[in-house]
Structures are given as structure tokens and as C-alpha cells.
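User: My instructor asked us to take a sequence, write out its structure as C-alpha cells, and then describe one feature of it. I'm not sure where to start. Here is the sequence I was given:
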Amino acid sequence: MKVLSSPARAGLADRIAATVRDAPVSRETLDHPYYDGLRFMINVRSPQGSDLFLTDGGAFDWLRKLTSNRRLTFVASGMGSQLVAYLCRTELEERAKRGSREKFEAALAKLPDVEPEDYDKL
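Assistant: Let's start with the prediction itself. The C-alpha cells for your sequence are:
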């Protein structure tokens, strides 16, 4: 995990970093104007040993500006959900080897042959 902050938010960033257990945390200076003084980044290590970006987030001043309330801070984060398949690809490849067209068609044959609901139609 990486915690980045402006000099003004360094104390808060240090407190956040101090609460993380069982994972290495690095502290860096934030030089990105998109964030309002605080950003975090989380990577995971794949079974092959490479570091993969998983999620990041930080503080924003949008809510403060919209409401003219200087005490409000909006914190948002985003996760690279497309990485889940990448991280699990070895397991998925192993499961695919155990599958077969015959097993797939046998499972489909057990399903009722009915029209989809209106909300499911293309």
C-alpha cells in the first residue's frame, strides 16, 4: 500500500498508514492536483511475483466547493475489477481443463425451455 499526501495532510496520512496491519506501507509526497492532499494506492502481488495495481482513491474538494462548506471532504475509491480474472487466471485455466462440451450441454439440458421475461429480452 502507498499513502501519498501534501505537506498539509502529512499528519493524517501518517495516522492512516499507522493503522495498516500485515502489509507494507510506503509514504510519499503527493504531487497530483487531482486529489485534495491525500491519495492511497493498493497493489497486490500475483502468485508469479509481479505487483498488480488493484485500487486507488483519495480526498476531493468537490463537495466542499458545491456546498460552500469548508469542513466537507469527499473520499472516493475505484477498483480495477477487470483484474479479478487476471489474478484468478491460473485457477480459471485449471477449471477450464476439467470442463467439456458434453458436460456443458448436459447441464443446459436440465434447464427449462421457456421464453425469457420481458425485462430479459434483447
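For the description part of your assignment, you could build on this observation: The chain has one domain: 2-112. Try explaining in your own words what that tells you about the chain.
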